[in-house]
């Protein structure tokens, strides 16, 4: 590169707001030439957004981004980041299923031209592939749609490192190793280190914290859109990073971590009530006999573990297995890891509001009443007064502000989430299922939500709660900790400290790289 | 919940909007059906000004002819509103086949009206069910599924129509043209049907599910709705409505003909778009559809009065639909 | 749903390996080509004269306009869209060639160029505003038809002699249709699967966002595909004009379904990007020859449309079935 300033990337004071959510809040960080850095944070912490502002895909609201010494205002987009030497691999893969491997290589490789464009592109890609993933087994004439996800990910990663018309200077990798096995991951990082020595800078986000610690030089931790801390990789531990990600004021509840164990660890957490069983999860145990986990009426159960270890699959299975009427029973539902049977009906609240939650064309009232229309109709018609009464009741019970005739999209993320809670709670179902319901929600709202859930449980509603924020789990009666798809421990809510849950999630060993939920989302 | 009944109704006023004249006016101005109504009135007045025809006769004739379009259009509206690229290109073929079937059964006899109508609607429902099966279970794109069914129906009609001479019942024919004073009965029936379906779409749980599935099928599936089933029902409804429109149109025009439904394939989509419904699904506006249907009908009248050739009529209709689409705002679009 | 994805994948079953080899060796065009050959064989069996150069010309010549229409539709389907206006567009081209070109060749050619530009504009509109291609092209089909009717209200007009003789060009050594068929297929296939921009075009249909991230203009790709479709629509109109000698706005209405059927039978997919030129031409031949075969057997012409539609439905149902079986196998 012509410019020899020591910093490949300087991000200063970048903010980005989506509607009422502040996705990135005054973020600043620096990547030096030839440095490998990581960005850690939960889903919705703002990692993807800040990276998209950096490569110019989306315009930020304020701040500056300096690449290779060339500064630009963050509120501009860049049509061709690859011409600045900025390459990106996104979480959603960007390969074209209908093309061959060598054609795919050529799409990325603008230097492959003329009659031999395919062989040139393939040669360039294979040079990187062979070194990055020895024994990758990818043939040039294979169609992308025939390749496994892992091999597609290899092609994407390798394509960022080819020497096209502009050599790579800053490579941004968003979850690059989510489908790679341990050997491939190791050779991948070895290759990155080699290229870093040549002056290429790399930013990586991954949920696999041990990868960051083992391979990168520095790690920035993001939460709620802010870059909160910077840690040097040697010195950092999984716990230190997770603690920074959680930023929990939980020192008071900190207890000694439960002894690590590679086998199933279960504290003496028994059902808190002797009432009827609402949910029954069955999984094969290590010794071949099946293990049964029961959830009883009025309990609050947390599903915990590292992200992507099967909590979401289990929660969805509970939803799909539940009946349409209160008290009824449907046939058990099987997943890869569990057989799930449920007594009674259920309502579901998703923290993924945009895709799995709100109906964006409707006002708040229509959004809230949607799941309860059955009990609001007379002669097939929705009774306007009954609907208004229901909406009003939940407006006041959840403290939702504003007019019920406002479009739902005009509300802040937290208020939208309250409206979704209202929709589910208004059903009055036997079972309330929560999928990370406080994602991107402010602290005050969170406290209100916790209060509300305890109230619902006291009224006899059973609550199953999947959370990515371990500090929340203290609100549960019992917590099921998932690892690699299975429940590996059940602990009481009181024992469910950040440290305890993390210890159980890792099980005292490096967890196999995994993304069970990749297929679900 | 349990305390729903105990809560006094007097507290209801708090979160709902105070309906002052200003907010009502604003709601009318922002209503997606407004352009259709404005256009309808403009063309109505233009006909009066250009042709010097009585405004009342113009609109009452227009409302009658528009009713066929309203009936088919409602089915099309449900299919489009339920989303997933939903579109029903078989309606014109369903109309023609139903017209032949019903007229053969009625055979000019008033006693057979009910049977004729029922058979026509059932034929449409079956066609809609086949489309729904092809789309939701086989996984064909709606366009191909409904077009394939349409061509099958066309062939059936071609073969079958050669052997029958159907005549609509005179009473049904009279019904489509009769007037009480200045009010055309059939036109009023069209308005009643439109109101009924507007109520179904906005005030029943079925209608809400149609719109919900059209907006976010995944969100709907997590809120106790079954998207595939809801979508399938829209195709069945569309088939039934097309069948009904076919009988009425045959009665109005004296008997069935092979080209009976042809112009309704595009027109039924055009009225949905003109009426302010979203082409991507999730929002259906039946009042706008009614106005759009009258607008299109009056446009044809205007074209006839000004002796505009058939070519121009095609151009105007086609360009109108593209133009409205190009100008319409998608409230879900991010950028 | 495995926990890890080993780099060295498990050994494949013999059938799987064979299928894969078959897939890469023959591509999606193999089955439709085989089907076309079988149908042609049946026709020869019924009427041996079909195999003679004259017979070949007689049977294949009427299919040339359909083949162009299928290629036009193929470009649109490659873009992930569907064109319901191609029939009317070809009809308009036919009318322009039969009415305007004889009077004023310059005006006629400008008109035809304007039609291509209009298609490009349509592509921009669909790409930029994210409109459903089905509704836009259906609306535009009425515009094309309306314009054609304005120019020529009832069938008539005379196609210039030069065009007629060009279209009916038939050197005795090799049948003219074979030359046209070969040249067009090879040219389109080379462009689409052997040129870099062809790969970009196919890629943009299957994952526009991915192609955009790699630094290509997705809108330009869309416009290119629409322009190509328009050009092949014009060629279809040209051959239709030369063969019929006159103009008729409604002449190509049946091409809407037939062209979609041809692409799908030829291995194309509505997902976008999955198209093959050889497959599309073979698909067109299957659909077209099927009509001729039915005629040979003495099936009424009214049944022919149904039979051709049925082939489309059958192919789609079969594919859905195969997909379903594969899915079930994977989960087992």
State the gist of this model.
Chain A: One of its GO terms (molecular function) is ATP hydrolysis activity. Chain A: Pfam families: ABC_tran (PF00005). The complex is a heterotrimer of chains A (521), B (335) and C (332). By secondary structure, chain A is of the alpha/beta class.
Structure description:
The complex is a heterotrimer of chains A (521), B (335) and C (332). Chain A has four domains: 1-85 and 167-247, P-loop containing nucleotide triphosphate hydrolases (Rossmann fold); 92-165, no CATH class; 252-345 and 429-521, 3-Layer(aba) Sandwich (Rossmann fold); 363-426, no CATH class. Chain A contains 15 helices and 22 strands. Chain A has helices at 47-54, 101-108, 117-132, 149-159, 182-197, 209-215, 238-246, 311-321, 353-356, 364-369, 373-376, 384-398, 413-426, 443-458, 498-506; strands at 7-18, 21-32, 36-40, 62-67, 70-73, 86-89, 170-174, 201-205, 218-223, 226-232, 277-284, 290-296, 300-305, 333-334, 339-342, 346-350, 377-378, 381-382, 431-435, 462-466, 478-483, 486-492. The radius of gyration of chain A is 25 Å and the shape is globular. Residues 247-266 and 509-521 of chain A have low confidence and may be disordered. Chain B is mainly alpha-helical and 335 residues long. Helices cover 70% and strands 1% of the residues of chain B. Chain B has helices at residues 21-30, 34-51, 55-81, 91-106, 113-138, 142-161, 170-177, 185-203, 205-215, 217-221, 227-252, 264-274, 286-305, 310-327; strands spanning 179-180, 183-184. In chain B, α3 (55-81) packs antiparallel against α11, α5 (113-138) packs antiparallel against α6 and α12 (264-274) packs across α13. Chain B is globular and about 50 Å long. The model of chain B is unreliable at 1-17 (pLDDT under 50). Chain C has one domain (62-288, 301-317). Helices cover 75% and strands 0% of the residues of chain C. Chain C is built from 15 helices and no strands. Chain C has helices at 14-26, 30-46, 53-60, 64-78, 86-103, 105-129, 133-151, 161-167, 176-194, 196-206, 208-213, 218-244, 255-265, 277-297, 301-331.
Order of helices and strands of chain C, N to C? HHHHHHHHHHHHHHH
Count of helical regions of chain C: 15
Number of DSSP-assigned strands of chain B: 2
Q: How many domains of chain C?
A: 1
User: Can you give the helix content of chain C as a percent range?
Assistant: over 70%
Tell me, briefly, the overall form of chain C.
globular
Largest sheet, strands/sense/barrel of chain C: none
Tell me the total number of β-strands of chain C.
0
**Backbone shape of chain B:** globular
What is the topology, as strand order, of the major beta sheet of chain B? 1-2
Computed CA radius of gyration of chain B, to the nearest angstrom: 21 Å
Return the average pLDDT of chain B rounded to an integer.
87
Give the ordered list of helices and strands of chain B: HHHHHHHEEHHHHHHH
Query: What is the number of helices of chain B?
Result: 14
Largest sheet geometry of chain B: 2 strands, antiparallel
**Based on helices, strands and strand pairing, what is the structural class of chain B?**
mainly alpha
Unreliable segments of chain C (pLDDT under 50, ≥5 consecutive)?
Answer: 1-13, 20-25
Strand content of chain B: under 5%
Number of individual domains of chain B:
1
Oligomeric category: heterotrimer
């Amino acid at each position: 590169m012509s410019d020899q300033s020591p910093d490949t990337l300087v991000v200063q004071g970048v903010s980005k707001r989506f509607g009422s959510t502040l996705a990135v809040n005054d973020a600043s960080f620096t990547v030096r030439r030839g440095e490998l850095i990581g960005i850690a944070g939960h889903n919705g912490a703002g990692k993807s957004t800040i990276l998209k502002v950096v490569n110019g895909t989306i315009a930020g609201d304020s701040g500056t981004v300096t690449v290779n010494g060339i500064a630009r205002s963050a509120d501009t987009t860049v049509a061709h980041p690859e011409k600045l030497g900025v390459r990106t691999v996104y979480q959603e893969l960007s390969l074209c299923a209908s093309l061959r491997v060598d054609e795919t290589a050529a799409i990325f490789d603008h230097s492959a031209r003329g009659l031999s464009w395919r062989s040139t592109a393939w040669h360039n890609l294979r040079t990187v592939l062979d070194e990055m993933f020895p024994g990758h087994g990818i043939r040039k004439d294979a169609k992308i749609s025939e390749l496994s996800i892992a091999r597609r990910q290899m092609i994407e990663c390798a394509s960022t490192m080819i020497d096209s018309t502009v050599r790579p200077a800053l490579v941004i990798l968003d979850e690059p190793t989510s489908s790679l096995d341990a050997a491939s991951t190791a050779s991948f990082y070895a290759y990155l280190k080699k290229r870093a020595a040549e002056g290429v800078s790399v930013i990586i986000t991954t949920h696999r914290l041990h990868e960051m610690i083992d391979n990168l030089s520095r790690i920035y931790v993001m939460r709620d859109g802010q870059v909160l801390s910077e840690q040097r990789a040697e010195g950092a531990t999984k716990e230190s990073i997770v603690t920074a990600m959680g930023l929990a004021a939980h020192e008071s509840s900190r207890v000694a971590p439960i002894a690590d164990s590679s086998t199933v660890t279960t504290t003496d957490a028994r059902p808190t009530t002797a009432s009827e069983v609402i949910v029954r999860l069955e999984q094969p145990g290590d010794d071949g006999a099946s293990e049964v986990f029961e959830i009883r009426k009025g309990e609050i159960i947390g599903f915990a573990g590292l992200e992507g270890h099967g909590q979401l699959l289990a929660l969805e299975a509970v939803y799909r297995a539940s009946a349409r009427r209160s008290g009824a029973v449907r046939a058990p539902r099987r997943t890869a890891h569990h057989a799930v049977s449920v007594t009674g009906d259920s309502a579901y609240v998703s923290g993924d509001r945009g895709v799995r939650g709100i109906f964006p064309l409707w006002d708040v009232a229509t959004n809230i009443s949607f799941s309860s229309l059955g009990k609001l109709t007379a002669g097939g018609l929705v009774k306007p007064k009954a609907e208004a009464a229901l909406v009003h009741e939940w407006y006041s019970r959840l403290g939702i502000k504003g007019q019920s005739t406002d479009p739902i999209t005009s509300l802040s993320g937290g208020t939208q989430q309250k409206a979704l809670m209202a929709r589910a709670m208004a059903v009055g179902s036997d079972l309330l299922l929560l999928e990370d319901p406080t994602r991107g929600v402010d602290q005050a709202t969170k406290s209100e939500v916790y209060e509300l859930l305890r109230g619902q449980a006291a009224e006899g509603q059973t609550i199953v709660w999947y959370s990515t924020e371990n500090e929340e789990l203290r609100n549960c009666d019992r917590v099921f900790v998932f690892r690699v798809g299975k429940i590996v421990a059940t602990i009481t809510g009181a024992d469910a400290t950040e440290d305890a849950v993390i210890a159980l999630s890792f099980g005292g060993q490096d967890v196999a790289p995994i993304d069970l939920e990749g297929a679900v989302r | 919940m349990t305390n729903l009944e105990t809560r006094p109704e007097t507290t209801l006023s708090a979160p709902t909007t105070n309906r002052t004249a200003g907010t009502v006016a604003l709601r009318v101005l922002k209503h997606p059906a407004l352009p259709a109504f404005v256009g309808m009135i403009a063309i109505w007045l233009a006909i009066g000004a250009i042709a010097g025809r009585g405004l009342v006769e113009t609109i009452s004739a227009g409302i009658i002819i528009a009713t066929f379009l309203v009936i088919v259009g409602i089915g099309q509206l449900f299919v489009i509103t339920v989303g997933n690229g939903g579109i029903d290109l078989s309606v014109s073929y369903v109309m023609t086949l139903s017209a032949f079937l019903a007229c053969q059964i009625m055979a000019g006899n008033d006693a057979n009206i009910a049977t004729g109508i029922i058979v026509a609607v059932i034929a449409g429902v079956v066609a809609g069910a086949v489309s729904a099966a092809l789309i939701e279970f086989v996984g064909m794109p709606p366009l191909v599924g409904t077009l394939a069914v349409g061509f099958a129906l066309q062939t059936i009609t071609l073969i079958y129509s050669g052997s029958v001479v159907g005549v609509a019942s005179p009473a049904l024919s009279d019904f489509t043209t009769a007037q009480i004073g200045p009010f055309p009965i059939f036109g009023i029936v069209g308005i009643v049907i439109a109101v009924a379906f507007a109520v179904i779409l906005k005030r029943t749980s079925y209608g809400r599910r149609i719109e919900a599935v059209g907006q976010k099928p995944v969100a709907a599936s997590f809120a106790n709705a079954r998207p595939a089933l809801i979508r399938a029902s829209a195709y069945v409804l569309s088939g039934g409505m097309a069948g009904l429109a076919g009988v009425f149109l045959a009665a109005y025009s004296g008997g069935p003909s092979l080209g009976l439904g042809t112009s309704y394939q595009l027109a039924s989509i055009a009225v949905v778009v003109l009426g302010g419904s979203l082409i991507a699904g999730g929002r259906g506006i039946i009042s706008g559809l009614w106005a759009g249907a009258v607008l299109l009908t009056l446009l044809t009248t205007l074209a006839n009065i000004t002796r505009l050739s058939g070519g121009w009529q095609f151009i105007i209709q086609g360009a109108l639909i593209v133009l409205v689409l190009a100008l319409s705002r998608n409230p879900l679009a991010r950028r | 749903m495995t926990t890890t994805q080993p780099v060295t994948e498990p050994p494949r079953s013999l059938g799987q390996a064979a299928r894969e080899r078959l897939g890469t060796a023959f591509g999606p065009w193999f089955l439709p080509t085989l089907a076309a050959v079988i149908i042609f064989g049946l026709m020869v069996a019924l009427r041996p004269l079909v195999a003679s150069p004259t017979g070949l010309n007689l049977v294949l010549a009427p299919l040339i306009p359909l083949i162009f229409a299928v290629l036009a539709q193929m470009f649109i389907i490659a873009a992930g869209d569907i064109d319901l206006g191609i029939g009317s567009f070809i009809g308009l081209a036919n009318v322009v060639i039969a009415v305007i070109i004889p009077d004023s060749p310059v005006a006629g050619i400008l008109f035809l160029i304007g039609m291509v530009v209009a298609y490009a504009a349509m592509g921009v509109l669909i790409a930029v505003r994210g409109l459903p291609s089905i509704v836009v092209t259906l609306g535009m089909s009425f515009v094309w038809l309306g314009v054609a009717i304005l120019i020529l209200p009832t069938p008539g007009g005379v196609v210039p002699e030069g065009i007629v003789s060009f279209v009916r060009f038939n050197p005795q050594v090799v049948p003219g249709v074979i030359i046209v068929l070969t040249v067009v297929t090879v040219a389109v296939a080379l462009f689409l699967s052997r040129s870099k921009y062809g790969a970009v075009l196919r890629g943009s249909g299957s994952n526009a966002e991915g192609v955009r991230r790699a630094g290509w203009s997705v809108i330009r790709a869309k416009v290119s595909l629409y322009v190509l479709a328009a050009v092949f629509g014009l060629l279809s109109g040209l051959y239709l004009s030369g063969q019929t000698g006159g103009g008729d706005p409604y002449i190509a209405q049946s091409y809407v379904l037939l062209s979609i059927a041809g692409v799908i039978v030829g291995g194309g997919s509505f997902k976008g990007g999955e198209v093959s030129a050889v497959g599309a031409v073979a698909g067109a031949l299957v659909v077209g020859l099927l009509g001729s075969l039915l005629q040979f057997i003495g099936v009424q012409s009214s049944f022919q449309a149904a039979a051709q539609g049925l082939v489309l439905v059958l192919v789609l149902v079969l594919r859905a079935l195969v997909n379903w079986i594969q899915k079930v196998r994977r989960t087992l």
